[in-house]
Amino acid sequence: MYERFRDKTCIVTGGARGIGAAIAYRLATEGCKTAILDIDEYAGKIREKEFASMGLKTIFIKADVSVEEEVSRAIDDVYKTFGSIDVLINNAGIGFSGKPIELQSIDEWRRVIDVNLTGPYLCSKHVVKYMKNRGGVIINIASTRALQSEPNTEPYSASKGGLLALTHALAISLAPYKIRVLAISPGWIDTSSWQIPKREPKLSPLDHRQHPAGRVGRPEDVAALVAFLASDEAEWITGVNIVIDGGMTVKMIYIDENIIEDSIATLIGDRELASMIRTFIENAKEDKEKVKEILKKALGNR
Predict the structure, then answer these.
(1) What gap in Å lies between CA 122 and CA 281, rounded to an integer?
(2) pTM summary value
(3) Active-site residue list
(4) What is the DSSP letter of 244?
(5) Sign of torsion, CA 76 80 86 88?
């Protein structure tokens, strides 16, 4: 790859695993001196050693992005090591247990908000002093969950929604310093290959097929977008959120017999059997008890 980031320095929070690791790798391969900030010391040191063995200029610094003292110290250390900070990727984030709202504790809510929203705020706050005299780019990794939700995701969805608002606020506040601020909202990204150790993906044909683009996303997809947006080629882009989700958020879904048949065929790999199951379902509308008896008999009354 050509070196769009030669003589530049970037910070990637949560860069030891998953999407963050792929972003750190992509920027480093394009000539960027890369600092990985992560709370996971074990994974961070492994990633630092791995990248160094490839000849990439990478350091790992342990830091909890929700703690201002740790953020300030880590960013100062990056500047002392590399002499500049040009790009900040606010990627560090945590998920949520999925408990119903009446069972969610205030501590769980606060921890998700602290990491996913306060963390990017603090990191942005403390890099500005190093960017304001030379310009820079801040990219916040949000989520399509800022725009659409599954049940019982209130802390996570709220944190990512807040991150989009933080993005356009920072873009306006920091514009006089020639600091661009953007958000990226990934959809379904399989991070198996960027874990430590690597994992085998557990994806079905249906997982891929429901995406208009034909597959579940990969961390490399997000990393490629980050590399473009952080480069000088994107100098006229700021304050916006870019969705990267294989087309899922623009897809209208109507559940009908055709969708059910197609999904079954994809899952079991047999169109004829899927058609038979569809017919069976349609017959169940007319005589549910008869269909139940047939199934009980076929399944041995299990």
Answers:
(1) 55
(2) 0.89
(3) 156
(4) E
(5) negative
